[in-house]
């Protein structure tokens, strides 16, 4: 019984860490732009396909490097950078048109953008409609009590903690973070202080997309495969975690991710055939939070005087 509890606890921490990396991107973008970038999950899940494509292209040209951990690491880093740049390109081409538009217009546009990204992957990536094996880029395992713990799980948790801590440090301890917070609070006042909102928006999209890419890469490694439509479920869970915690709150996104991952893990462990019903319980939690505290756990209700 203790071993089962430890195993489920490990699953909860790993899933919560991965979901947090997706959710903080939603909260960061909403906090700065006041736009719900619903295709953030789809942008993030471009990263595993970029990494796979890069590995396959290099091996096809230089077969001798097949299986090299250095090659895999370089391809993962390339995927992070290119996914961050993709977020910037989409902000320039599409999302900036909706900065001052009604929220519903931006929501519909980003939903459509997500569909475009998924269909491009499905048709342009070789056999894109099929699942593709994705390596766990850290191998090996060790025992804790009677529970087998993979090094991949430990690396996923540590990387998530480091990424989120670095993001908090960036926002609170650096000049760029000060500018991001200034733009999020008052764009006009930021302009008067010689801060370019357009430049800050692009930096924010790069950061959010790259952090989301880390989460997508670890999720693909955790599942040992990747599909073009993974972004639908994981992106929706990441968005729901941000909503539960309070859109715009980074701490709320992390707490919401841990709550959703905990419920997900609990249902699969306790409820008969729980894997089939886990999303039912997860989104019942989301509905309950929206009914009783629409602003989220850490969100604040904004009162406007008219």
Description:
Belongs to the binding-protein-dependent transport system permease family. LivHM subfamily. Its main location: membrane. This protein has helices at 2-33, 40-44, 46-61, 69-93, 103-124, 151-173, 175-185, 187-192, 197-223, 230-245, 250-270, 274-292, and strands at 132-133, 141-144, 147-150, 225-226. With 306 residues, it is mainly α. The strands form two sheets. Strands 1-4 form a two-stranded antiparallel sheet. Strands 2-3 form a two-stranded antiparallel ribbon. Strand 2 and strand 3 (147-150) form a beta hairpin. 42% of the residues are buried.
Helix content: over 70%
| Biggest sheet overview | 2 strands, antiparallel
Task: For the record, give the distance between the C-alpha atoms at the N and C termini, rounded to a whole number.
Answer: 59 Å
Strand segment count: 4
Shape: globular
What would you say the CATH architecture is? Orthogonal Bundle
Radius of gyration: 20 Å
Derived from helix and strand composition plus strand pairing, the structural class reads mainly alpha
Mean pLDDT across the residues is 88
The total tally of domains equals: 1
